[in-house]
Fold:
Amino acid sequence: MAASCSLSRCVVSPAGKHTASVIFLHGSGDSGQGLRSWIREVLKKDLAFKHIKVIFPTAPARPYTPMMGEISNVWFDRYKISIDSAEHLESVDSMCNTLTDLIREEMASGIKKNRILLGGFSMGGGMSMHLAYRYHRDIAGVFALSSFLNENSIVYKELESCHQSLPELFQCHGEADQLVFHQWGERTNNLLKGLGVPSSFHSFPKLYHEFSLQELEQLRSWILQKLPDDSGETQ
Structure:
């Protein structure tokens, strides 16, 4: 793999030793700290667990085409924000290399790969689906909130020849989203399900391109289902 940069990050760690990790990727133009703060504002507390470390990395700053080439913290470039656009694979693949290093860091600290979850909001969810379903099919699961994959995504093409079990996908989308349309998320879920991805899709009426309390509470429950506490203690 090509050389990659180390990502700055914001971390919510348990008091004791963690036995699992969640890597939560922000949307375009945000940061790890910004995402953590937004979640805390909605939940009225951190997304925190007794046995799970939650990592909020920040995407490197780069020119972003939908913003007329202005510099922004984005996981990859896009030609346009549309399901029928081609993917900017050079930037997607470069970031897959960088985020793979973050996964390896967790594994080097003693976390088993099947105790790692990947996910994100908006662009962060799309990035997570590329990373998991192309390169890390042995992780615990994937979550994508207000996210989509392009109609001709390389993810679909690479899954056509896949014959192994795939990580479960937990997907949520607001029905009133005017930036990433609900039907884009639903289409993504249906296509992945048709290619063997075990998945669920949760719709939220009147929700725009944002989080809701109900959505984050459902996500928290799903995370605990996928990464249970081996000690038997309740969260």
